[in-house]
Amino acid sequence: MPSTREHYRPPEGAAPPQEAVAGLVARLGGQVLRPRDRAYDAELAGYNRISGHRPALIVVALRDEHIRVAVDFARAWGMPVGVQATGHGPAADTAGGLLISTRHMRSVSIDPVSRTARAAAGAQWHQVIASAAHHGLAPLNGSSPTAGVVGYTLGGGLGLMVRKYGYAADHVRSIEVVTADGEHRTATPTQDAGLFWALRGGKGNFGAVTALEFGLVPVPRLYGGGLFYPGELAAEAVHLWREWTGELPEEMTSSLALLRLPDVPGTPEPLRARLTVHIRVAYAGPPREGAQLVAPLRTALTPMLDTVADIPYTAVGDIHMDPEGPQEYHQNSLMLADLGHEATQRLLALAGSGAACDDYVVELRHLGGAAGRAPAQPNAVDHRDAGFALTTISPPAPPGATRPEPLTDAMAPWGTGLKYANFLAGPGTADCVPAAYDSATYARLAQLKAAYDPHNVFRLNHNIPPAPGPAPSE
C-alpha cells in the first residue's frame, strides 16, 4: 500500500516560488524546461496537437530517478502532473502543471524464451515490433506503430489481433511505476495487486509508469491490408462487411472506416476530398485461408484499391495506413452491443454517401472472440460484452464555434452505454471518462485512486478523481 507520510501542500493553483524552481533546475539541469526556454516547444509537441497546452514546467526524463524527482517536486508544491511520451491521446489542459516527458526513455528488450518484452516509458510500438520479429514474435500493438507502448497499454490496448488474443492489457506481466508519494513500485498480480489491476485500463491516473513487461505472441506474418471502395458504394460496402463479420474465426480481426480525408499534402491522391470506404483485415493464420476468407469482399464489390496480401508482421502499419506526422483532431467513441440492420442504416444516414458529415474518419472495429472473454489476470478493461467499437476522428472546430453533436451520441440507442478510453482525445473528452467504465469498475478505480493518489496529483489525463472516505486495503 502507499506510504502514509505527510507532505506540505500549498494552496491549490499556487505556482512554486522561483527559488524552488531554481533548486529543481540546479538538481536536473537542462532537463527542466520553462515556456521561455528554447527547447520547450519541441519537447512539448505531441502527435495530436488539438489541445495547445502550455504546462508551467516540463521535466525531460532520461531515467527513472528523474521521474521520481519530478513527482516529489510537483507533490511538494501542489502542481498537477501529466505524463507524455508520444501525445496520441491528449485529454486535459496542462496549464499551470508539470509535464513529465518520457519520450527519451525508449529502451526495449526481448526475452524469446519466456516470449516477453520489456519496454521503457517512452518506447514506441515500431521498436517492439522490429525487436520481437527477430524471434518470430509479435506484440499486441494497435494501428499506429509510432504510438507509445505505455499509454496505449494503460488504456486497454485494442489492437489488430484483439479477437485472437484479447486486449494488450490482458498480457501485461508487471509494471514499474512511480506513484504520487514518490515511491518506485513494481506492480504484479501478487505485489501491489490492486495497483496492478487499476493500471491496466485506468490510464495514467495511478502514477508515472517507467517500464512495462508484457507477453508476446508467435505471429511472424499476417494476411493483412486494406480494401478501398468509392463512396457511392458505401451502403453496399458497409452492409457487406457487417454480414461478413458474422461467421469469422477469431484469427480474423477487421475494421471498416468511412473516410473523408482532407485535400492536403500527405493524403493519397485517390482518397483526397471524397468519401471512400476502407475495410482493413488482419488474419493471424495461413495466407491461403486468409485469402479464402477475404474473397467475398473482393467478389461482391470491386475495390478501387486492394493492398491485402501475405505480409511480415513488421509491415503491420500498412494495414490502417495511419498518418505518421502530427495531426490535430478530436476523437470520440462508443461501444456497440451489436451492429444490426437498423443500426447500420442509421450510421449510413449519419456518415454515408450524401450525409452532412465532416468527420475525417468514422470507424467500426469488430470485437468478440478473445476480446469478449475475461483475462486470466482481471483488469480494469470493461467492454467484454461489446460486439463493435465505433470511433470518430473529427477536425477542430473553427474559432468561436462549437463542434456539432457527436455522431456517437446519435448512435447511443445501439450502444452498451460505455466508451473506450483510448479513443477519447481533445478538449472536453475528460468529461467522458466515467462513461469508459461500468459503475462497479469506476467505483473501484476511484477507491484505488484515493489509496495511491489521494490528492489527485496525476490529473492531467483522463482523470478519475479519488473517492471520498477511507482508502481500501489490498
Automatic annotation (TrEMBL):
Q: Which InterPro entries match?
A: BBE, FAD-bd_PCMH, FAD-bd_PCMH-like_sf, FAD-bd_PCMH_sub1, FAD-bd_PCMH_sub2, FAD-linked_Oxidoreductase, Oxid_FAD_bind_N
Q: Please tell me whether the keyword Oxidoreductase is annotated for this protein.
A: yes
Asked whether the UniProt record includes Nucleus among its keywords, one would answer: no
Q: Which cofactor does it need?
A: FAD
Q: Report the residue ranges that make up the FAD-binding PCMH-type domain in this protein.
A: 51-219
Annotated keywords: FAD, Flavoprotein, Oxidoreductase
The record's family statement is:
Belongs to the oxygen-dependent FAD-linked oxidoreductase family.
User: Which PANTHER family does this one have?
Assistant: BINDING OXIDOREDUCTASE, PUTATIVE (AFU_ORTHOLOGUE AFUA_1G17690)-RELATED (PTHR42973), FAD-BINDING PCMH-TYPE DOMAIN-CONTAINING PROTEIN (PTHR42973:SF39)
**Would you tell me the protein name for this molecule?**
FAD-binding oxidoreductase
Query: Which species is this UniProt entry from?
Result: Streptomyces axinellae
